[in-house]
Amino acid sequence: MNRHELSRRFPKASASFIKANLDPEGAGPAAVLEPDPGHAPLETKEVQGSTGAGFLVRITSIRKRLLDEDNLCAKYHCDLLRYAGVIPDDAPGICKIQTTQRKAGKEETEHTIIEVLKI
Question: What pLDDT, on a 0 to 100 scale, did the predictor assign at position 17?
């Protein structure tokens, strides 16, 4: 882009702005983009051998102000449990997920309780 084009697009631009955008060295390094993750499913890890059992993941959110039910994001917590190797998979046949919430008491801080039970 030349000086005339910059002045036309940015009529109130300062001289330093125009100089920085004319000089390819002055603009700094190009941003590093994340690699394309693709659309393949995430890798599933074997957890202490196959137990053949199912799991119940119970997520209880204790909050000062209650949320809409669809805003209680259990997916994030279940994915973290899977990445940590606590559960082998969060597929419907293996894992049952329950989300609940309750209002925090007067002196109680907000927190989340995550329980994993073998069923």
Answer: 84
